[in-house]
Prior knowledge:
By secondary structure, the protein is α+β, with helices and mostly antiparallel strands. It has a single domain, classed as Alpha-Beta Plaits. It has 4 helices and 4 strands, in the order E-H-H-E-E-H-H-E. It has helices at residues 13-20, 24-29, 54-61, 64-73, and strands at 3-9, 32-39, 44-51, 81-85. The protein has a 4-stranded antiparallel beta sheet. The radius of gyration is 13 Å and the shape is globular.
Amino acid sequence: xxxxxxxxKADNIDHWKEQFKxxxxxxxxxxVSIAYMGATENNSVLAIFETDDLEKFTEKFNSxxxxxAMSNDGIDKGSVEMFIITDQLVIM
Length: 92
């Protein structure tokens, strides 16, 4: 299943975490089955998404719906970076 990472700056970590969890329908529209969240003390946030359709995810990610959701979450629009996870290293 494809993985996508999204990194950004948030105005307030607690607000971001609370609001991020309200976007279930948006994530479903992106083919997301699970989303992982993390943050640093300097308000950098990271979300890792498992999606069953990378094209659908990307299309919806670039939509006005996602832009509105990120704005509501207090995300600095200019700080958003999306990473398609294409490689892995298996440690045995």
